[in-house]
Amino acid sequence: MIKIDVVSGFLGSGKTTLIKSLLKAYENEKVVLIENEFGDIGIDGDIVEREGF
User: Fold this and answer.
1) Backbone torsions φ then ψ of 47, nearest 5 degrees
2) Separation of alpha carbons 51 and 9, rounded Å
3) Which positions ≥6 away from 47 have C-beta within 8 Å?
4) Nearest alpha carbon to residue 7 among 33, 26, 45
5) How many Å apart are CA 31 and CA 33, to the nearest integer?
């Protein structure tokens, strides 16, 4: 079975915090994170890369 979580919301609603928490909770599992940023400046990708996910 494949579990899929879709996270969406307004700017500042806690999406990145939730994703970071989920990645830490499932650090011993195979996880795929697909990110789609529409802004001119990519914020979440930098955070995820910096934290080693």
Assistant:
1) -65, -50
2) 22
3) 16, 20
4) 33
5) 7
Q: Give per-residue pLDDT as tens, 2-43.
A: 889 999 999 889 988 998 899 899 989 998 888 777 767 666
Q: How far is residue 24's CA from residue 40's CA, in Å, rounded to a whole number? A: 28
Domain boundaries, the chain: 15-51
Whether the Cβ atoms of residue 32 and residue 3 lie closer than 8 Å to each other: no
Say what the pTM is. Answer: 0.66
Q: How far is CA 1 from the centre of its chain?
A: 21
Report how far residue 38's alpha carbon sits from residue 45's, in angstroms, rounded to the nearest whole number: 12
